[in-house]
Amino acid sequence: MPTKQRKIALMGYRSVGKSSLTIQFVDGQFVESYDPTIENTFVKNVKLRGQDYGLRLVDTAGQDEYSIFPQAYAIDIHGYCLVYSINNMKSFDVVRVIYEKLLDMTGKVHVPIILVGNKLDLQHERVVSVEMGKELANKMKADFVEVSAKDNGAVIDLFNKLIISIEKGGHDTTDGSNDKSGNKCLIQ
Description:
This protein is an alpha/beta fold. It has helices at 18-27, 89-106, 130-140, 155-168; strands at 4-12, 39-48, 51-60, 79-85, 113-118, 143-146.
């Protein structure tokens, strides 16, 4: 079976831990120091349910509500990881705005999304409840997970969930064909 290539964009407000999640997933380590990301792409090969995947993770620069949604983040992206910090309400609000801009850019076509509440290790500083995260994920028709990039809690699971969601969407860039159901895309 050929390796399936998948491109995932991590988006969210600055300092929510997009780079930390990416580095924890790719290298298995937590980077304590924070340098604002311009944009980095990380590559990792994984095997899930007997299938090999070549993942390209686009770690985007932090967005705010005024950021223009870059066209590049709407093209050739198979899935989105929208990240907020459980101890930062502004980051949660910004994720909503990013989602709306994403819908505008993709023409309201359903795209696989996982909503990620990061910094679970800062539980004592929580301002965004689990219920708020779940509610927003339901509105987005997205998977939802809370993680700690620092403690490596559920980081691998979140990317596996997103890959599974992408596969349910029927994306297949290995041979140009689609999934067995014949779905080309799902309109919401």
